[in-house]
Design goal:
Distance between the termini: 58 Å
CATH class of the largest domain: Alpha Beta
Shape: elongated
CATH architecture of the largest domain: 3-Layer(aba) Sandwich
Helix content: 25-40%
Largest sheet: 5 strands, parallel
Strand content: 5-15%
Number of domains: 2
Structural class: alpha/beta
Strand order of the largest sheet: 4-7-8-3-9
Radius of gyration: 24 Å
Length: 342
């Protein structure tokens, strides 16, 4: 049995640049702050070879976790699949352009015969999990599923797959993934009759090459029980004050912005106060990061005399309804603390 590679939340990042679908990424997942409980959940998923289903408030770091796992395990490939309201399970593995094939066949019938127009493999593009599974096999075992120009890695390679916001998908989406996500196996029915076997081999992928799957959810709706049984689950709680400070400092550094430690603490205190009120949309980590970013930009580009003025001018990043913003404004304007003292 292959030795399982474990996630160490305190380990340095082993990869400076990630190969993602849109190119190279040098920022996502850098210096990620994971709790011991989250570290345990990641390692449980790695040990069992199961997908990790992560829930939490928007902006709490669910999506970034997949990138962080890749960096800390030294995996340089991340396949990202943003779930949409019209997503179907097939698109997680591949897309077949039947219209382009039809046009190609028509053109070839008018001129000299073109064998490529009749080969459906030339009209298939493998996506996210499909590409990660292909990359985990020896080339000769899966070459029958790909066109001649398919870009295989030099050797079988491990990938991290991030399936983002699965609760946005149609109701049948999770159920349509049950066997495929359990066995890391899929078929391409469009290739039936064109190749000897239109499916991934049934060979077990070694543990050190098995794609690592991170699935995020905002808990907007309940996922099917059969799907949940196939996942390791972890809910990311709202961070404590010390963790919030570390995350905020890291975020500002990524944005090439600076704020005094005292101003960061004041911003966090304001968000904490707001979370204790009866707000229509209580602010979370995502709102805090946008709020401090706005304050940082004003500190560098505007002539606001102090933190209070910069905060008042940036409240639309922290509050999400007119009533919430007015409540924040009244609180700041009526505050008797030393907001502007550094």
């Amino acid at each position: 049995m292959s030795k399982i590679q474990l996630f160490d939340r305190n380990a340095p990042d082993l990869v400076a640049s990630l190969n993602v679908d849109s190119g190279q990424d040098t920022r996502r997942g850098v210096n990620y702050r994971a709790t011991p409980l989250l570290e345990n959940a990641v390692n449980t998923a790695l040990a069992l070879g199961r997908p990790l289903l992560v829930s939490g408030e928007p902006g709490c770091g669910k999506t970034e976790l997949g990138f962080a796992i890749a960096r800390k395990l030294g995996i340089d490939r991340v396949r990202f699949f943003p779930v949409k309201s019209d997503s179907d399970a097939q698109r997680l593995f591949y897309e077949y352009d039947s219209l382009r094939r039809f046009h190609a066949a028509q053109l070839s019938s008018r001129a000299s015969a073109d064998a490529s127009a009749a080969d459906p493999r030339n009209f298939i593009e493998y996506r996210a999990l499909g590409r990660a599974i292909l990359d985990a096999y020896e080339r000769e075992k899966v070459a029958h599923l790909t066109a001649s120009g398919h870009n295989f890695p030099a050797a079988p390679t491990r990938s991290v797959v991030v399936i983002d916001e699965i609760d946005k998908a149609p109701r049948d989406f999770p159920n349509d993934l049950l066997n495929e996500i359990d066995q890391l196996w899929f078929r391409v029915p469009e290739l039936a009759g064109s190749v000897a076997s239109p499916e991934i081999p049934r060979d077990a992928i070694p543990a050190d090459l098995r794609p690592i799957i991170v699935i995020t959810s905002n808990l907007e709706r309940q996922l099917p029980d059969a799907f949940l049984r196939r996942c390791v689950f972890h809910h990311i709680e709202h961070p404590d004050e010390k963790t919030l400070e570390l995350i905020t400092v890291n975020h500002l550094q990524r944005m090439a912005l600076k704020l005094a430690d005292s101003e960061i603490r004041k911003a966090i205190a304001l968000m904490d106060w707001a979370r204790q009120q009866r707000f229509d949309k209580p602010p979370g980590l995502a709102e805090l990061l946008e709020f401090v970013r706005a304050i940082g930009i004003r500190a560098e580009n505007f002539s606001d005399p102090g933190f209070r003025e910069r905060a008042l001018a940036s409240l639309s990043a922290l509050g999400k309804t007119t009533r919430d913003i007015e409540t924040l404004r009244n609180h700041l304007e009526g505050s008797t603390d030393t907001l502007d003292k550094q």
